[in-house]
């Protein structure tokens, strides 16, 4: 299931991770585990933020995908199922065929 994760790291917690040199370890571990097809990093609402497009096996996989952000970075995470253009075309075709 293609999923967009919007992750906003808590500023105080992420500042501490930066000062301690642990932010690199967190990001390497999470990106290595999730293997995103796309990853974008930017400031948002005064926080360090990222969009990750990941392929989750099922809904239960949300737990393992977001726990490291919650546990280690006190992050706010938004999880949104999403499609690429090919998925959208397939969905429209299915809809039109079902009418």
Annotation keywords:
single chain; alpha+beta; four-stranded antiparallel beta sheet; 4 helices
What Rg is obtained from the alpha carbons, in whole angstroms?
16 Å
Assign a percent range to the helix content.
Answer: 40-55%
Percent of residues in β-strands: 25-35%
Strand order of the largest sheet: 2-3-1-4
Order of helices and strands: EHHEEHEH
Q: Please count the helical segments.
A: 4
Shape: elongated
Poorly predicted sequence stretches spanning 5 or more consecutive residues: none
The number of E-state strands comes to 4
Structural class estimated from helices and strands: alpha+beta
Kindly report the average pLDDT value. Answer: 96
What's the N-to-C terminus distance?
A: 25 Å
Main sheet: strands, sense, barrel: 4 strands, antiparallel
Chain oligomer state = single chain
List the helices and strands and how they pair.
Elements: E1 2-9, H1 11-19, H2 23-34, E2 38-44, E3 47-55, H3 61-73, E4 76-81, H4 85-98
Antiparallel strand pairs: 1-3, 1-4, 2-3
Helix pairs in contact: 2-3
Describe this structure in a few short sentences.
Helix content is 48%, strand content 30%. With 99 residues, the chain is α+β, with helices and mostly antiparallel strands. Strand 2 and strand 3 form a beta hairpin.
């Amino acid at each position: 299931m293609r999923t967009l994760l919007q992750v906003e790291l808590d500023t105080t917690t992420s500042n501490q991770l930066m000062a301690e040199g642990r932010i690199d370890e967190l990001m390497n571990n999470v990106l290595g585990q999730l293997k995103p097809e796309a990853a974008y990093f930017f400031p948002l609402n005064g926080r360090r933020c990222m969009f990750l497009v990941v392929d989750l096996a099922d809904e239960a996989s949300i737990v393992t995908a977001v726990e490291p952000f919650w546990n280690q970075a006190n992050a706010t995470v938004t999880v949104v199922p999403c499609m690429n253009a090919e998925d959208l075309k397939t969905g429209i075709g299915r809809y039109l065929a079902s009418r």
